[in-house]
Input
Amino acid sequence: MNILNLLFKNFISGSVTFTKGPHSLVYDGMGNTGQTVFQTAATPVQNNGSMHAVIYTYTKGAWIVQPYYQHSSVPTNAKVGVIKGATTDGGAITINRSFKSGFSLPARFEYLTSSGNGSPTTVNLIYGPGSAATSFTATPTYQKGGFFARGDISFVHATTYTSGDVFGAKGTDPTQVRGVFEFGFIFGNNITTK
Output
């Protein structure tokens, strides 16, 4: 639990983990304990919201399998322009396979939906009120000692959406492919060599 957030910003967060052998189960939760008019460009409406996630992880040898469920809620708050609140529900599965050469291949499939049924007064949390989307991401990664390099390619498809709230110059394309490449160094005494 982050006590500083609780004391100064009326926001509380916490996590509980249960582990037995190769299995672990995590509950993560966070949320505002009141209402605020504080907004930023990154979180224009979410500062009054809450989020809950349940994450199961199975680890065996070179494999990690991790399905999870996430629920978020943004309540009605006329002071910040949220005439009608909304929720999101999502599920995903991540599978990672590591190889002795320092190479690993994580991949993730996700489905996300929001409430609102296309009502124009409901806050937009994804691609318009009542929208839904699927995504697939692959992140091939190489690490040797402190050096790492990874690429990331992601395919997103909005299955239901409001025209103007999706991708492309006019916000009307329901599909987007994104890619990024990064490399760097990890510093510290937690690096293990094999």
Notes: The domain at 3-185 is CATH 2.40.160.10 (Porin). The longest strand covers residues 147-160. The radius of gyration is 20 Å. The beta strands are 11-20, 23-32, 50-60, 63-74, 86-98, 103-114, 132-138, 141-144, 147-160, 175-185.
